[in-house]
Design a protein that fits this description.
There is one protein chain. The protein is built from 15 helices and 14 strands. It is an alpha+beta fold. Strands 2-3-1-4-5 form a five-stranded mixed sheet, with helices on both faces. β4, α2 and β5 form a beta-alpha-beta unit. The protein starts with a strand and ends with a helix. The structure holds adenosine-5'-triphosphate and magnesium ion (MG). The site of magnesium ion has 2 residues, from loops.
């Protein structure tokens, strides 16, 4: 083995500039890492979209992707890289198709998690296909929408089975809402879901073996959705929120994902947890932004330097065996799934490895956040995101929150 390895990380990006620049700046601050006498160096490049031969080599060892969930050419390139080149991918492209809410609901229901009761109803408008008339005449069974709704109970939510971005989501308070929403659903395939009357909306962002559970306020404007509050859940609910996010990710082979949970007392109800490649913009994460980007850097570096492999297999039977074990109650099952998830993420090894090899990285992150480069990045992001008359107001808002993060770090160290 040579005593020098250079690892290249590929970034597949959409419109964003803020977190990629932060990632590139922080990766430069990792410096060579010495493992058993071998020097490991890390660099990154932004990937471009171009024709590829299925036999082409891939230069990057790991890819962080924010594009493939909506753009299929790089999605298919990722699948080729995973199968042909052994490229390490944070999210398995093979379960991208399961990223519709529906499969994720089914899988976690199978594990006994507290998914609100959900019914899938047929399309309001027939699919545009010549075979439809025959199928409809022969097999399409009439159904009583009102009876389903009565059974679920008002109020409820109607939302697309593969939803995201609040498209087509409505709260249904009565029969009139029900028929109006269903008539408008047209060619979208809809779930009806029982309402959870929640105290807190917890949104957990997971990056590899790290998870941050945040107090999310979906009704606030984007810049104000994440509240900075550290003990907003009971210890039990907080533990479940972390565990459930990790379990979902380990189950599907995702390492960069967010999980939305509705929390009522100590009961945690996951409702949306197929958000791989989640938003990590400084203008939404603010206080949590330095944590998120340094976790992305650390996890990528750890995975490359330790030769971690991403697997295309899901090993669902290990989870189902726990689900089917009648001697285990809900809490015991959560603990058993969490143990599988932590094994999958090598959680203990990751933290030890970071302490040993990236000991001063956190201090470098703090210096960067306190310095001129981050300030420039923040100002540029604000300039491109908000109208001119709001620049100063938003600069003060985000600077205040990132400074709060800085002073909390100093207090901790
Ligand atoms: N079962 C439920 N009980 C209570 N509130 C719900 C339920 N389902 C959805 N909601 C509310 O509707 C919002 C949107 O739902 P959901 O997250 O499922 O859709 P989405 O399209 O993924 O939206 P987003 O992109 O904001 O996450 C949630 O933030 C929540 O406030
Ligand atoms: Mg959601």
């Amino acid at each position: 083995m040579s005593d020098r390895s250079r690892h290249l990380i590929g970034l597949l990006l959409g419109a964003e500039e803020d977190w990629p620049q932060a990632f590139e700046a922080l990766l430069q601050r990792v410096g060579p890492v010495n493992i058993d006498g071998a020097e490991h160096e890390f660099g990154s490049r932004r990937l471009t979209i171009e024709p590829f031969d299925l036999n082409d080599p891939v230069r990057v060892g790991l890819v962080i992707d924010r594009l493939a969930y909506w753009y299929y050419h790089p999605r298919e390139w990722l699948k080729k890289a995973a199968l042909m080149n052994g490229t390490y991918l944070l999210n398995s492209p093979f379960t991208f198709q399961s990223m519709e809410k529906h499969s994720a609901y089914c899988a976690m229901l199978r594990l006994g998690l507290k998914i609100p009761r959900t019914v899938l109803v047929p399309y309001k408008n027939p699919v545009d296909n010549v075979r439809w008339a025959y199928t409809s005449a022969k097999y399409n069974k009439g159904f009583d929408l009102d009876a389903i709704a009565e059974d679920l109970g008002y109020p409820m939510y109607m939302k697309p089975f593969d939803g995201g971005g609040w498209r087509g989501v409505s709260r249904i308070n009565n029969k009139v809402d029900l028929h109006q929403a269903y008539d408008q659903s047209g060619e979208m395939l809809m779930h009806l879901q029982a309402t959870v009357e929640y105290d807190k909306f917890a949104r957990a962002l997971s990056i590899g073996a790290e998870t941050m559970v945040m107090d999310f306020r979906p009704d606030e404007p984007m810049h104000n959705r994440y509240a900075v509050s550290h003990d907003f859940l009971s210890p039990s609910a907080g533990h479940q929120a972390i565990a459930i996010s990790r379990i979902v990710n380990a189950f599907f082979g995702w390492e960069f994902n967010s999980c939305e949970m509705l929390v009522k007392g100590d009961s945690v109800h996951p409702i949306d947890y197929a958000n791989a490649c989640p938003d990590v913009a400084v203008t939404s994460l603010h206080y949590y932004f330095p944590w998120a980007i340094s976790a992305l850097v650390k996890w990528s570096v750890f995975s490359l330097a330790t030769g971690r492999r991403s697997s295309v297999d899901l090993h669902t039977e290990r989870y189902f065996a726990i689900a089917d074990d009648e001697s285990l109650d809900y809490d015991a099952k959560i603990s058993a799934y969490l143990a599988l998830a932590d094994e999958h993420f090598e959680t203990a090894k990751y933290h030890e490895w970071c302490a040993e090899h990236l000991g001063d990285f956190d201090a470098r992150v703090r210096d960067w956040v306190a310095g001129p480069d981050f300030d420039r990045l923040l100002r540029e992001t604000i300039t491109t995101t908000y109208p001119e008359n709001e620049h100063e107001q938003f600069y003060a808002h985000f600077k205040g929150l990132t400074n709060l993060w800085l002073s909390d770090q100093t207090a901790d160290h």
